Amino acid sequence: MKKSLWIAFTLLLLTLMLVGCGRDKEPAAEDLGEALPADALAVASERGLSPDDIRAALMTYTPSGILDEYIMFASGGHSGNVIAIGMPSMRILKNIAVFTPESWQGYGYGSTDSETVLNQGNVNGVEIRTGDTHHPALSETGGEYDGDWLFINDKASARIAVIDLRDYETKQIVKNPLLINNHGSTFVMPNTEYVLEESQYATPLGWEFAPISEYKEKYRGLMTAWKFDRETGRIDPELSFGIEIPPYWQDLCDAGKLVSEGWAFCNSFNTELATGGVEQGNPPFEAGVSQRDVDYLHIFNINKAAEVAATEGKYEVMNGMRVIRMATAVEEGILYLAPEPKSPHGADVTPDGKYLVVAGKLDPHVTIYGFDKIQKAIAAGNATPDEFGVPVLPFDEVMVAQVELGLGPLHTQFDGEGNAYTSLFLDSALTKWSLGGDDPAGYKLLEKTPVQYNVGHIAAAEGDTVSPDGKYLVALNKWAVDRFVSVGPLLPQNLQLLDISGDGPMKVIYDMPMGIGEPHYAQIIKADKIESWNTYPEVGWDPLTQSPSEFATKAGEESIVRDGNNVTVNMTAIRSHLTPEHVPLKQGDHVTWHITNLETAHDATHGFQLGGYNISLSIEPGETTSFEFDAVNSGTYTYYCTEFCSALHLEMMGYMFVEP
Ligand code: RUQ
Ligand code: CUA
């Protein structure tokens, strides 16, 4: 394009875009035309920006003070955390500590509330301080995100965490008493009655020792339905239950919605029952688990299972958990299988709840199953049992359509216009295709857009609810390669934001390096659905119980109380003062230390670190937090506020004397 022509086009585009850009006070088009600085074009041409780049910038650039429309909660993978990201700016808002200690939030560095939560996730007395978070699930009401709670799994040690979105803090970790790893989790039922967790790599239930030669007899999978109590904001293990399933490697799940509410669907691989051992001359896992052309979709009637799990005599209690054994699950019509093409990965229910999309991974197709067809096939009784006695429904009775998309289809999301979007890992591309209802001819590949590179999950705005928003789609790419300035051999992931509005082609409009974790799945919620607190509701608040703390200290009532070797410190923090300023101890004392942040002002957080004793706290306005330690080493120690809270922040310190 000639330079003058290019400038004219860009000017026109800039004007149009700015006019279309939603701001409170919208300048009139003529104002913008005039206000548009002449140097804007110079900047664009100097930086070599194309009209598409300028359009992308205008869609994502978020001026200071303007809030994002959406919040994306992305799992952090083996960083063990969850990351909250504003959209469309793609600015990181918070790294939420979940399974892994995090110093800035004072999580896992002495504070009693965080140690209590982290210790709930210990395994047989072993302190677990890492995690592998995969699939966040926002709580739902009627199949819509309600903005109250967020759940996340730890694949490595089979644990589930509950995050309260009023303060974005982890409140509970539950350890699955029968599994040592999971993957098909977390997924919630449309009213969050249950949070689902399914195993991945089969082990004996309770992960007890059994030689691999006994794989078929002793190794099993488990679907776990964790009962969530909205009143307490906690999972209630007493009311939760498991369903024993074959030792296939179950992968990803989705809960039914609307017509399919009460059901859940999970796919699997390794229906070959490969047990590895390449060192003994067996086929390596990656070959052994990929021999068959089909694996099995698992179909669960969760509502029926809840009934059975509440009926004395129909379940067994294993390690304290009620378990419906496989034979009972078959007998009661709780578990069915259906063939699915070669080592699939994603399983995603359409917004109307009528269809289920399974992506092939080693097959270029997505396969669409009809819930209605599944019900009819169950009623028709033409199933044949697999080698564990679980009925396998005939493929042609349950399948609605197959669409060839390309290489390595993984995960599917939806917009509100009857379209589906599927990631292609091997092709490094996203596809858009149409949903056809009961008409196989209605399923058509519409377009394909390259992404950089090796896309895993994708997330669309409210894209797995009963009413997806369309508009934005994020590709959570595994490889970044050449997208960013080099930061050494460990690269960030590349999260790419795509504009999927209108009928035009999908366009990448932002690249966001994620240098603090490897997001797998993410969910994107309208930001105004979350009513988070600016400060805690009362001064002296215990965030773990979300109620007033018995250890709250009022201004003027600070104290140091000695009872033999037990010393209790009742401290307050307010700009720019920690009271008391001197804490005298004797070597060998057991110290319990409470600090109340007396502030009621938005953002007036105080931090606290005690040198030499590994203590780090973050005390939000109104919060009371506690820690305990043994003063094993004598000396003169300093503690101080770690948040630059005021002009006299550096003065916000004190001495702790430990007399030998
Ligand atoms: S999984 S992409 Cu848990 Cu698909 Cu990672
Ligand atoms: Cu409080 Cu710095």
What topology emerges from the helices and strands here?
Layout (H helix, E strand, L loop, with lengths): L2 H18 L8 H7 L2 H9 L4 H10 L9 E6 L6 E6 L3 E6 L15 H9 L16 E5 L2 E11 L4 E6 L4 E7 L8 E5 L5 E5 L4 E2 L10 H4 E11 L4 E12 L3 E7 L7 E7 L15 H4 L5 E8 H7 L7 E3 L2 E4 L1 H6 L3 E7 L5 E3 L5 E5 L5 E6 H10 L3 E2 L5 E2 L2 H4 E6 L4 E6 L4 E6 L4 E6 L9 E7 L4 E7 L8 E8 L15 E7 L7 E8 L7 E5 L14 E2 L4 E2 L10 E5 L2 E9 L2 E3 L2 E5 L3 E8 L8 E5 L4 E5 L4 E7 L4 E6 L12 E7 L1
Parallel strand pairs: 12-17, 37-40, 39-45
Antiparallel strand pairs: 1-2, 1-33, 2-3, 4-5, 5-6, 6-7, 8-9, 9-11, 10-11, 11-12, 13-14, 14-15, 15-18, 16-17, 19-20, 20-21, 21-24, 22-23, 25-26, 26-27, 27-28, 29-30, 30-31, 31-32, 34-35, 36-37, 37-38, 40-43, 41-42, 41-44, 44-45
Write a brief structural summary.
This protein has 660 residues and is mainly β. Helices cover 13% and strands 40% of the residues.
Describe the structure in your own words:
With 660 residues, this protein is mainly beta. It folds into 3 domains: 3-60; 70-98 and 133-275 and 282-529, YVTN repeat-like/Quinoprotein amine dehydrogenase (Methylamine Dehydrogenase, Chain H, 7 Propeller); 541-659, Cupredoxins -  blue copper proteins (Immunoglobulin-like). It is built from 11 helices and 45 strands. Strands 8, 9, 10, 11, 12, 16 and 17 form a 7-stranded mixed β-sheet that branches. Strands 36, 37, 38, 40 and 43 form a 5-stranded mixed β-sheet that branches. The protein is globular, with a radius of gyration of 27 Å. It starts with a helix and ends with a strand. Mean pLDDT is 94; it is low at 1-5 and 14-25. The protein binds (dicuprio-$l^{3}-sulfanyl)-sulfanyl-copper and dinuclear copper ion (CUA). Dinuclear copper ion binds at residues 606, 641, 643-645, 649, 652.
